[in-house]
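S1.2 Input.
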Amino acid sequence: MKRFNYYKVATASPEVWIGNPKKNVDSMLKIMEGLDKDTQLVVFPELAVSGYTCQDLFYEDLLLEQVKKELVRLCDQMPDNLACVAGAPLVIQDTLYNCAVFMYDHDILGIYVKSHIPGYNEYYEPRWFSPADDLKTNEVILDHRIVPAGNHILFSDLSTGARIGIEICEDLWSAIPVSSYHALAGANILVNCSASNEVIAKDAYRRSLVVHQSAATYSGYVYASAGRDESSSDLVFSGHDLIAQDGTLLNESTLYDGRSVIYGEIDLQHIKTDRIHFKTSLEEQSFDDYITVEYESLPFDSIELKQKIDAYPFVPSDIDQRIERCQKILHIQACGLATRLKKIGCHDVVIGISGGLDSTLALLVASRAYDMLGLDPKGIHAITMPGFGTTKRTKSNAQQLMEILDTSMDEIPIAKGVRQHFEDISHDESVHDITYENSQARYRTMLLMDLANQYNGIVVGTGDLSELALGWCTYNGDHMSMYAVNASVPKTLVRYIVESEAIKAQRDGNTDLATVLLDICDTPVSPELLPPDPDGVIVQKTEEVLGSYDLHDFFLYHMLRFHERPLKIYALCRLAFPHVEKETIVSAIHTFYRRFFAQQFKRNCMPDGVKVGSISFSPRGDWRMPSDADRSLWMEDLENIG
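S1.3 Output.
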């Protein structure tokens, strides 16, 4: 696929010969030659050129001179158009420092000097090394080259927008990691050359540190750790390499898998978008004492993404995690409704029940909210309103659900009233157009609103996030309510929340509830506004009109969470749904953008509804957009689909 803003990194834990820089550099060069050709940065561990566990050999002038010589050879013989960070012990003005050297395209561009020197437990680095604060210069002469050095130094690739900040091992484990300052100074890729030994449970803590730091700084984080060839006199090193971005682990190697190289594709556009959006996280102070070294790499036109693109970003793939998340979302929804009812002193709600997924979820939310408040479930007035498109299956499921949940239930057929409305506006009932459909939706909403007046209650809305994105709701019809409990729940997740409640019911021995909920999950998504076929089967299927909600929710997530351009979302969708025809995806994404822009007016006056995830359309919260925005730029981007 097209490269977009992906920056490809690799971490490597090479074979180490303790105290033999020549063999160590040979090992690193061998790894570099075998890297994927579009790799842009490779990171090696702490003191990789000498070996981390040299101990008092670090005093040996012969070793230190050989390190410098081999660093120059590494720089001269490394592949073209590749950036490299490698750890090495270097003497600067008669003081020994633990350093990480940044090289690009046969040039040493700068040296990071370790800030925090651990001297506790198994670590006794102060015996040999001094911290960066002891530096009395910010330049080093290396092979007749004047090279900037210090712990406030960044490397900026003008071609890709990557701004790389380096720290070394302990720098991450301090109360305020050095990489936090790098991020505040503008670094978007953080690199750690490390030699972290392996003891029980340390790998989990190390992983959490890296993942959390990538989240806290809205950065890519690349962690390379010393491998098994370091001395085992007292310690074992595992080569636990990690790559994370924005709080997500992209890749890792462990003690058990033995991989010496791992890759990660860091999305610089995602990082930029998050930093623009979540401004307060990186606005505390500026740093005028940073050195920025600029270079310009040769761009790559394409990339073969190795990381998995999740086809269902709203839905955890692990079933236990999915059930846990769905139950938590259901509880959040119920808390929102319970709080609203308590605050306004209301004991009655009115819900239109169709037997479909959305209204089922709304009824489950109401039932749980009433349990929280200790209210009589008969205060939930569940109303079925069969019309021209209602089928026996959905009507039966709706009735069974209301009986099992012990709500009040009523049936109000709408055909007579809608026909009168058709007569009033001179509409031919045989013409099954948008007027035919929306008249039914608005009539149902009018009934619910009037019933709410009778009961001194509120109408609980049933529409979901995906419908709001596409405007698949009738303005001032099912679009409107007094409280919309599903407003930030995407369609793909609605099904799984209902399914999770069915699984919970099975575990609790409530087989009747489980059976009806599972059948509702299997029912095609439909507003049932057009008549069924002669056998009573649903004819009007939403996804045959709009395209799959699986695709639309994928588009929705990537547009609203990361604000990616349409062409990139399309390319990612092709990877996420390899078995879906190209033409199907093209048609769906055109529909998505066309409707998304055209239907904003509905979102600008949507009712209250609690936010449950990372995306919400509330005009009072997450999404503010003019109803008359021009969609041309986005549609033109889609014209570039090859």
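S1.4 Remarks. The chain has two domains: 6-295, 319-638.
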